[in-house]
């Protein structure tokens, strides 16, 4: 009878669902205590008590912008929150997940890492963003970072923790709420403006395809969204579109423009023609995803993009994985 009781007790406490709940709760509490212990005096603009009054106030906006920044304070609070520091980056930062995977059987890989006592795996784009910014600062340049397809902020926060102003664009509200969490966790309210929109070459609305369980693969093109994850549920929704040239002030120096929008890159670039037409030494370093399959799903091609960029003076492009790095 005693052995039977022990067996029953062990199974109840060690199910994947119970372990996940325990470690998620522990992580949230640890994050809360860490941030509480590191809270700065009340006159600091990044103090959570003052965050409401200071969020995004220091970043200029085009006076004719058709869209205002997303209000993190009035958005719903996602729960539970699973967040962690990123490993292996020179300037560490937190971010939180918007996808948890299929619980409890197939959790997100970073949840598995937490259960093993590890930090979140470093995203390649985070390392790249920090390296490019450091190199350009070494050349005497300063300016903002424009993050198109911000997802949960892995590139946004890589820049913001370096003191770089960031304009982040993301149409998926679940991802936006994770970005809002990251603004608080990283104390970067003075550095980040986030916009609930898909960037394009015109103002309006467009049908967007959200991929449940793989929000990072959501796309304007239905075929592009499901290219690698055909079995995932797809949800159609209407999202706002806005050209970058109508949001980023002409007087705002921009160091780096990163675009990762699952095949919609050409339309984003056309909507940023003024920004990209700036002269050498003032034009941004450009990183965009150049996946031919995704581009074709959105009725464009890498050849078309390279021709467009060449006409604006971006004649030096290097392929790095599925990303193209272009300069004048």
Automatic annotation (TrEMBL):
<keyword id="KW-0812">Transmembrane</keyword>
<protein>
    <recommendedName>
        <fullName>Methyltransferase FkbM domain-containing protein</fullName>
    </recommendedName>
</protein>
<dbReference type="InterPro" id="IPR052514">
    <property type="entry name" value="SAM-dependent_MTase"/>
</dbReference>
<dbReference type="Pfam" id="PF05050">
    <property type="entry name" value="Methyltransf_21"/>
</dbReference>
<dbReference type="InterPro" id="IPR029063">
    <property type="entry name" value="SAM-dependent_MTases_sf"/>
</dbReference>
<keyword id="KW-1133">Transmembrane helix</keyword>
<keyword id="KW-0472">Membrane</keyword>
<feature type="transmembrane region" description="Helical">
    <location>
        <begin position="20"/>
        <end position="37"/>
    </location>
</feature>
<feature type="domain" description="Methyltransferase FkbM">
    <location>
        <begin position="147"/>
        <end position="314"/>
    </location>
</feature>
<dbReference type="InterPro" id="IPR006342">
    <property type="entry name" value="FkbM_mtfrase"/>
</dbReference>
């Amino acid at each position: 009878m005693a052995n039977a009781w022990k067996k029953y007790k062990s199974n109840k406490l060690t199910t994947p669902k119970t372990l996940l709940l325990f470690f998620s709760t522990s992580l949230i509490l640890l994050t809360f205590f860490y941030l509480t212990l590191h809270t700065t005096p009340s006159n600091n603009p990044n103090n959570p008590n003052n965050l409401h009054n200071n969020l995004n106030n220091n970043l200029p906006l085009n006076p004719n912008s058709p869209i205002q920044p997303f209000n993190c304070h009035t958005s719903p609070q996602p729960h539970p929150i699973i967040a962690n520091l990123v490993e292996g980056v020179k300037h560490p930062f937190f971010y939180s997940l918007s996808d948890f995977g299929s619980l409890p059987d197939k959790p997100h890989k970073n949840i598995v890492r937490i259960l093993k006592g590890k930090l979140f795996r470093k995203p390649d784009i985070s390392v790249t963003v920090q390296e490019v910014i450091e190199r350009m600062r070494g050349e005497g340049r300063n300016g903002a970072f424009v993050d198109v397809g911000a997802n949960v902020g892995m590139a946004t926060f890589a820049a913001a923790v370096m003191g770089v102003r960031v304009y982040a664009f993301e149409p998926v509200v679940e991802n936006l709420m994770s970005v809002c969490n990251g603004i608080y966790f990283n104390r970067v309210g003075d550095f980040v403006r986030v916009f609930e929109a898909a960037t394009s070459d015109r103002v309006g609305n467009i049908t967007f395809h959200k991929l449940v369980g793989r929000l990072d693969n959501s796309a304007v093109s239905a075929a592009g969204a499901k290219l690698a994850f055909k079995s995932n549920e797809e949800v159609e929704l209407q999202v706002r579109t806005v050209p970058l040239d109508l949001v980023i002030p002409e007087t705002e120096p921009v160091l780096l423009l990163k675009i990762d929008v699952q095949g919609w890159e050409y339309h984003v670039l056309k909507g940023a023609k003024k920004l990209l037409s700036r002269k050498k030494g003032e034009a941004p370093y450009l990183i965009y995803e150049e996946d031919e399959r995704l581009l074709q799903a959105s009725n464009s091609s890498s050849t078309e993009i390279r021709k467009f960029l060449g006409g604006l003076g971006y004649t030096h492009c290097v392929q790095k994985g599925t990303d193209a790095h272009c300069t004048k």
